[in-house]
Amino acid sequence: MSVWRDVIGQDSAVATLERAVTDPASMTHAWLLTGPPGSGRSVAARAFAAALECPRGGCGECRECRTAVEGTHADVDVIATEGLSIKVEQARELAAMSALRPSVGPWRVIIVEDADRLTERAADALLKAIEEPVPRTVWILCAPSLEDVVITIRSRSRHVRLRTPPAEAVAELLHRRDGVEMPMAMYAARAAQSHVGLARRLARDEGARIRRRDVISLAGRIHGVGDAIGAAADLASIADEESTAAAAERDTAERQRLMEVLGADPSARTQPPHIRSQLSGLEKEQKARATRHSRDVLDRSLVDLLSVYRDALILHSGAALGLVNQDSLPIVQGVARSMSAEQLLQAMDAIGTARERIGLNVAPLLALEAMAISLRVPR
Amino acid sequence: MTATATRTVPPLVLISGPEAVIADRALGATLDDLRAVDPEVEVIRLFAETYEAGALGMHASPSLFGGAKCIVVADLDEAPDELQEDLLAFLAAPEPDVTLVVTHKSGQRGKKVLDTLKKSQARVLEAPAIKSDRDKTDFATHEFRAAGRRATPDAVRALIEAVGKDVRELAAACQQLVADTTGTIDEELVARYHGGKVEATGFKVADAAVAGSAGEALRLLRHAIATGVDPVPIVAVLAQQLRQLVKVGAAGRGRSAEVARDLGMAPWQVDKARRGLSGWGPEGLAEAIQAVAHADFEVKGGGRDPVYAVERAVLTITRARTGR
Prior knowledge:
The structure holds two protein chains of two kinds.
Chain A: H1 11-22, E1 30-34, H2 41-53, H3 63-70, E2 76-79, H4 88-97, E3 108-112, H5 120-131, E4 137-143, H6 151-154, E5 158-161, H7 167-178, H8 182-191, H9 196-204, H10 206-217, H11 225-262, H12 273-317, H13 329-338, H14 341-359, H15 364-374
Parallel strand pairs in A: 1-4, 1-5, 2-3, 3-4
Chain B: E1 12-16, H1 20-37, E2 42-47, H2 55-60, E3 69-74, H3 81-92, E4 98-104, H4 111-119, E5 123-126, H5 133-146, H6 153-163, H7 167-180, H8 187-194, H9 202-210, H10 214-226, H11 231-251, H12 256-263, H13 267-277, H14 282-302, H15 306-320
Parallel strand pairs in B: 1-4, 1-5, 2-3, 3-4
């Protein structure tokens, strides 16, 4: 049993990191882990931290290992943000903290989970601390790709690239860690395109599976312009449903908690003004979060839709690659029959354009409508 | 529809309704009538925002020198509890020499005071909201008639197109025309005063674009941009109008009320979309919607010139309407 157990499908990266733990000559003071979303960047970073703190080099069982992986170890600091960026004030605090000696373990480890969200000024504030850290401090920065990190940080750290893990490895992890039945795990891993977190959600939540199926079944159903507008409205409402389902519970809990803190009477018909203003502030925050979340969900739906056309293209070319939508073969075959390879590529382009537009704040429904119009297939 | 007061004013007056111009006039007319009876009348204005408890009672109590008073309480709909209580106390025991005028825009607040006022036989002057073009036409026509002037329907229409956005501005424009000109007010006269000024909104741009008249749509678009309308809402309206065309077109025939219920639209929107659909084919609509989506991308930072992006979308829409 090893601390690297949950870092799946990343043999070469794990080998590099393990060597750094055992061989002082391979160790350095700042690491930059990059990999696509869901590839397990933060899991790898925590495992690496655990291995550094563990007296046996990452046994996965001792107290050091467990606390480091959970993020409660005294010398391991995990910085993640729910907002859009990490601000310069936070970065200055980090720089000051990095100068402290470790208190219990051999290393002080600072994990920045969203190094891509460092603002330029925040990154500047960290430069000195990352370039010349005190002897027993290690920085582990995580980001989706090298291009997302400011160049001055990039040049001061050692790069380790994680790849998208194979679907089999993800399914195996779901089976072992979360106790999901193997066929279901395999379906979820393929459908989530190896995004570990997503795969777990698909495997456990029937609603998520139904919504995904609704999305991919849109692919062959759009014939006329009227269908396209309808399909776009469907897509938008599926995303809305998904994000409200996720947010509703948390929003009420937060509201209750705030009322308790303020000593407000929850049964009162109207609250006094100072409490009202606090509540409306909270609602505003929740609304901003919901907007971001529903965009994320929409983007994921579009990736799901994209996977159908990708599969159809694979059927066309006869390539010996695994299909993402193995379970919905009839839909994929239908799309492959009714569209030429060229049309499939155009459809994939249209979906990509819609994702880009939604990312740039174009009204989601309008972007989806324009996309759905390009996805029409002759009846 | 406008409120006018007759010569004698009862001790209680309620001016009720959201339209500020009409309410102001009703108040002015009431005060004029009071002054006609007694030029020395003392007018005291109390405002909901700055009201301090007891002020009403203090002003209402008879002064050493006697004389009539008029207390104007503005915005009962925003009144704090103290003001409402003081008003109720006053209404329970009114002072003989005091005329009380209360204005109330809309809403439930101050309902108890309203009911008591009505029960005490207060004179109620209505100031209804002026929103639709028809309301505005009626308002302007009435303005001219009240001044003893005749205006042609075309003149009224042109005037509303030019300054119809704000009722206060419309009222001022009517007064200016009455004061500065003689004879019948016709379209030419309005054009001399307000020529070249058009209150263009995104909706008017979209209507012209959907109707296929490129020149008209571009002219309105330029007017809208010049008077400070942002390109973003214009694009949103274009998208909405085209979306409704497609939806209504796909819904097939059927009574417009039913279609409206199925699509979540208002019946008049369905009728309008049906009229607009002539000249549109599916391919044309597809092209138009894609052009609008591209324009939305460009006005939100994807392109360099937002105004040009909208103009191009409008041109594409008018060109796409060829019946394909």
